[in-house]
Amino acid sequence: MDSTYLQTLNPAQVSAVKHSPDIPLQILAGPGSGKTKVLTSRIAYLILQHGMAPSSICAVTFTNKAANEMKERLTKLIGKEKAGELRMGTFHALCALFLRKYSKSIGLEGNFTVCDAEESKKIIASLLKEYKADLEAKDISLKDGTVLSLISKAKAKGSSAAEFMKETRSRLQKSKSSGSSTNSISGDIDMIVAEIYHDYEKTLRQNNSLDFDDLLLFGLKLFSENQHTVNWCKHVFVDEFQDTNVTQYELMRAIAVACCVTVVGDPDQSIYGWRSAEVGNLKRMQTDFSSVKQILLEQNYRSTGSILRLSMAIVDQDRSRIQKSLVASHPAGTIPVLRCFSSEQAEAAFIAVEVKRLVAHMGGLLHWGDFVILLRFNALSRAIENALQKEGIPSRVLGGHKFFERLEIKDLLAYLQLVDNPHFTPAFMRAVNTPSRGIGEKTLSELLARTQKSKISLLELIEKINDGKTPDIKPPVKRKLQSFVTHIRLLKRMAKEGTSPADLIRRLVEVIGYQDHLRQTQPDWETRWENVQELITFASDVNVDLPDETRELAYDGDTIGIDGSRDATPLRLFLQASMLSSEGDHQNEENDKEKVTISTCHSAKGLEWPVVMIPAVEQGTFPFYRSEDIEEERRLLYVACTRAQSLLYISHASQRKVAGETKGKELSGFISAVAKQNPSLFTDQLTSFTPDERAVISKVLDRPKPSDSDVARSVAELSVPSSAIELSPLMAMLFHLQPSSIQASCS
Ligand code: ATP
Ligand code: MG
Question: Which of 271, 302, 370, 372 to mutate for ligand 1's pocket (most ligand atoms within 8 Å of CB)?
Fold first, then answer.
């Protein structure tokens, strides 16, 4: 256990860590100022110095990956056992955990299935069909994704289907009586969305499922109406608070109803307004928690001086922004590189060659894993991926096509979801024809209509199919349906007998002949089959790492399955872990250290890399032309630049292919404005090293993990003048060193 953690903090950070555990605290500070580090240290401090039980601490992070990283850091500070007792995770994961445990308190079945966006879209698409004639008559085209996002926005504001309908009606009424010329089409759309919202909720409940927004809304209901469900909590911590939405804020209040809170955030990094985040929650907290203390941190420990100077120049262009001081702890380092290319291919080729050059040049100090390429959106990754591949550089896409959204993973999860929750129709619809059993849409919709009348699940209905009341289904189809149900029954029995989720998947792929199915239907079946193996690995990990709370749950299953038996909950826990896994959660961390990361700027939030490259910084792309909030786009670029520790590259192409069409492109206004004002913020020269610096590198690299003093001694021995160190890219690379210690031993 590390008892020196307070010594690695500056005085402002220490005062934040030691601040009274009974007085609410807001830590507001810029990127790289150690907010997350302070939050983690404060958790350790409350446990070690104030004797707070780890199980009475609730820490909310933005992704599960961030929660795991925090748990890892805390394991070093307070030990594995105590760290395992902390209640840590995203708002979604925490809600899901407690909703399972106390489902009965709010009238839910414990075996509810979490419905992901793709499944939600399918439900909405089928509901939209009922409005087809109406929409056509009014010449309105409405997409499932649009409807889902409008419903999701309403839910993020805590507005139920009934409330949304009421609000919509009264808004339309008002604009009618005021004679306002509000577009009648938009009024029609609002009403249809309100109606679909209502039907969508009904369908979700029939399916015994909750979508992601429901997890928060039902969680809020649970916590606010049943105080005993939050009595365990003595302190709530929230990281990245600037990106919480109204419902999440209310959740924090509900969990912290009888205890204290610490939140950390940065208004300059609020980048989720488009997903209803309310940066105003920071202000609101000052009213709701009247005694709240604010602590500002002003020292940046992540980036070199030049990177920070450029980043500040970008965000400072937002005149409405409240100025905050942020001082670099590291030397100026290398000036950020700005380059223009003739096409996206030329830009991508440069990136790949430059990554390779730097790795070769730094003789082992930089690895593939030290590089990230940050994109405004995922679709820009194709040219980059190709170029990296061409140069033989391994890469991974963070937050790209998510592991759990892949076809082969969804196919197998559908079977398991059905084993767990027979009422979850989207899973039935997917599994029943995977592999194809030739069961037609007509048969399926007929069966579905019948279940809605009799309120039984499709599986139960199929079991009763021989009762003579289903003459319209032909015997061969009946046989196929029943053989499908037999598979589900088999898995159900195995799960009940305690077969692990990993073994269930192994058996499942065998009985349905899934490998053959992939081989026959997918050209890249081998990669897909590897993913199936990866799913099995993931399944075995989930079981091993059950936190106490979940372990308790595992024997608390009291819901009714297909045959009225008690359910096997390890399966449910596995399903929950996979449904809630967020961007970048499911990555093989060890392997990833050997790969260049390609990520969206959004997914890179809170993270850092030695080298950051941001291509396609062009008008229309960054800021993205569809974005409604230009300042949010600017902040996003600021977030991207401030991920960089040592080297930053910004580039653009004068021509880019967009949706199959080549278009002329201009450098983003965010950058051109800054470059015009202060051209010295950028260079077009690439980093290189002096012989002295190279000598230091090789000297330092003789030691597996060079300490600060190792480097200082090497530098001193080579008698590199301290002015060279001040500007040296090498020193910038060694970002974790305190420059003062190096200079002291050089002078
Ligand atoms: P972001 O806003 O991007 O989430 P943050 O404020 O949460 O940033 P951290 O990620 O906690 O910042 O810290 C940034 C880096 O600075 C980390 O590598 C961290 O270990 C380091 N750091 C923070 N405080 C100190 C300190 N006092 N001394 C040395 N390094 C520090
Ligand atoms: Mg952070």
Answer: 302
The pick from 8, 9, 27, 36 for probing ligand 1's pocket by mutation, whose C-beta has the most ligand atoms within 8 angstroms, reads 36
With 0-12 CB in 10 A as exposed, 13-18 as middle and 19+ as buried, what is 126?
middle
**Secondary structure class of 15 (helix, strand, coil):** helix
Q: In 327-466, where do the E strands start and end? A: 327-328, 337-341, 371-375, 395-398
User: How far apart, in whole angstroms, are the C-alpha atoms of residue 117 and residue 149?
Assistant: 10
pLDDT of residue 601: 95
Fold entry, domain 404-580: PCRA; domain 4 (1.10.486)
Residue 36 in contact with ligand 1 by CB distance below 6 A = yes
* CATH domain 4-108+215-297 topology: Rossmann fold (3.40.50)
Phi, psi dihedral angles at 424 (to 5 degrees): -80, 90
Closest-lying ligand 1 atom to the alpha carbon of residue 31: 2
Tell me if residue 431 falls in helix, strand or coil. Answer: helix
Cβ atoms 381, 401 nearer than 8 A: no
Distance of CA 240 from the midpoint of ligand 2 (Å): 7
pTM for this structure? 0.83
CATH of region 305-401+591-734, choose from 3.40.50.720, 1.20.1090.10, 3.40.50.300, 1.10.10.10: 3.40.50.300
Sheet of strand 644-653: strand arrangement: 337-341, 644-653, 609-614, 371-375, 596-600, 395-398
Q: Which ligand is nearest to the CA of 267?
A: 1
Residue 559 is given by DSSP the state -
pLDDT tens, residue by residue, 479-498: 888 889 999 999 999 988 88
Q: What is the pLDDT of residues 310-343, one digit of tens each?
A: 999 999 999 888 888 899 988 888 899 999 999 9
- Are 305-401+591-734 and 404-580 equal in CATH topology? no
Burial class (CB in 10 A: 0-12, 13-18, 19+), 329: buried
Number of the ligand closest to the Cα of 40: 1
Closest atom, ligand 1, to C-alpha of 606 = 4
Q: Tell me the pLDDT tens digit for each residue of 108-130.
A: 888 888 888 888 998 999 899 88
Q: Which helix (H) or strand (E) holds 349?
A: helix 344-361
Domain spans of the chain, in order of start: 4-108+215-297, 113-207, 305-401+591-734, 404-580
Amino acid at 161: A
User: What sign does the CA torsion over 485, 491, 495, 501 have?
Assistant: negative
Asked if residue 32 has its Cβ within 6 Å of ligand 1, the reply is yes
Whether 300 and 332 have beta carbons less than 8 Å apart is answered as: no
